[in-house]
Amino acid sequence: MFLAFLSLTVVGVALLIAVIIFYSKKDILVDSDFVVPDQAVQNKAPIRPVSVQEPETSSNDRTDSKPASDETEVKKREDAEYIPILRINEEIPGIKGRELVHYAGVGALYSLESTEDLKNIEIKSEDLELVVEGKLFLTSRYIIIYSGETVKKFTIAAIESFRFSKSHLIVKRKRVKTKKDILKIGHDLKDFKYILHALT
User: Fold this and answer.
1) Residue 44 domain-assigned?
2) What is the pLDDT along the chain (200 residues), one digit of tens a residue?
3) What CATH number is given to the structural domain containing 132?
4) Which residue intervals of the chain are DSSP H helices?
5) Range of the domain at 189
6) Is residue 191 part of a domain?
C-alpha cells in the first residue's frame, strides 16, 4: 500500500515538472518572437541621426511673403486711421448740418502777438491775451471753443503749422503773420493730440 502511494506521488511530481517545463519553454518562445524583431530593427538603425530637410521655397515665394515687421507696420497704419466719433446731445454753436465730433473737453484760447517761428515761441502767461475759456470741441473740419455767446471757430484746413508745448497748442494760421493762437487743453491732452495729428 505504501509503495503504491509512493509511486503515485513520484508520477504526479514528474507530471507536474513536465507541465512546468512545457509552459516555460512556450513562454520563452513567445518572448523570443517579440524580442528578435526589435533587436533586428535596432541593428539596422543608422548610427547618425537623419536630418529632416525643410521644403525648398522658390525665390518667388520668398519675395511674396511679408516679414513680420511689415505686418506690424501695416497694423500701425490701420490703427492710426481710427478716429473716435462722439455723440453730443447738446447743440454746439458754429456747427451747421451734419458734422462729426471727435473730441469734447474744456480749454482756453489765448492770442499772442508774435512774428517768431513756432519753435522759438515760449509760453509766458504775461504775454498771453485771453480770448475765451470754456467748452472745447474738435470736429472733422473745425476747432471750436465757446463760453456763453462767445464762440471761436478755426478751420483745420486753415492751419499752416502747429506744435505742442506741454498742454498748449501753438497755431499759426495761413495768411496771418503777426498773431499766433494759443490753445490750452484742459484734459485728455493725449487724445486731442492724436486726433489733431490724424486730421491734419
Assistant:
1) no
2) 666 666 777 777 777 787 677 666 555 444 444 444 444 334 444 444 433 344 444 444 443 444 444 444 434 444 556 889 998 888 899 887 788 999 999 999 999 999 899 999 999 889 999 999 999 999 999 999 999 999 999 999 999 999 999 999 999 999 998 899 999 999 899 999 999 999 98
3) 2.30.29.30
4) 2-44, 59-64, 68-80, 189-199
5) 101-199
6) yes
